[in-house]
Please model this.
Amino acid sequence: MKTEELLIYSVLLVAVLLATVIFVAILLPLLRRLRAGQPILKIGPVWHMAKEGTPTMGGLAFMSAFLLVFVGYAAVVLWQGRQKTLSPLLLVVLLASLCGFIGFWDDYLKLTKKQNEGLAAAQKFFLQLLASSVFLFLARYLEVINTAIHIPFWDRELELGFFYYPLALIFLTGFVNALNLTDGLDGLLSGNVAVLGGFFVLYGALTRMSVFLFFGVLLLGMTVGFLLFNHHPAKIFMGDTGSLFLGGLVGGVGLISARPLTVLGMGGVFVIEAVSVILQVLYFKFSDGKRLFLMAPLHHHFEKKGLKENAIVGIFSAATALFSCLMLLGG
Model:
């Protein structure tokens, strides 16, 4: 990496981290005054009831920080006459912002209803599908994606043709919801995405793919900044606003880089969390009410087994690091 590039990415990292900290510090007392506290599911772990009332929608802080820094970066790029390099980045930001808006709407309904139910599952899925479709249409129209994907460990591309589009929709909506499901413990999602962001930076540096470098730096900065307030015991939760925004951002990077399998592998923890929910539902249905896990998603199963929140966050973050190291080897 050139000295100039290193300086740019360092500035972006520090800027988004500081902006996140500042925005959370501003947002936190405001949310408290508005009594925008997190409703807790009654069917969840009993000890989680103590968290009820903790300010939520904290994702607004790192979303705002991210967009502020991105606008500043885009202004510099336009001033330098390199506007062509912005198209793929803008599309990922658009997808993440649309997903973040869906999450905000869901959080807002939960707060106004004073319960842990906002948008219906079908409504949320339809809106995510719509956002993903808009992203894919624009990406194809602007010719920043094609229908081939990179296969890790093989160093070849697989041409999917027409099947690319339904598979891409499944990938995006699935990944967004997987990150949403992982956001169940203090610092769990923000901690794992911080690790993922760090490995995005490494992967981008090794492969010379600027999309991984750029978004990896921003992911790392904003999640570390948010973790200062979100680690156990959390002073603020990101809400669906934050988790859906992060899901759109990570999933968008996977498709815009033609490396969805690499991102899927690095995010193996999120995939396992989602699969644990699917298996729990299917097992419950076909075994006359028996449960495969004590509770799903998987992090709640470990909670029920007696592991503390910090221990689970540490184990899951280490697993994300291991999955990411494996994908670094896969190229």
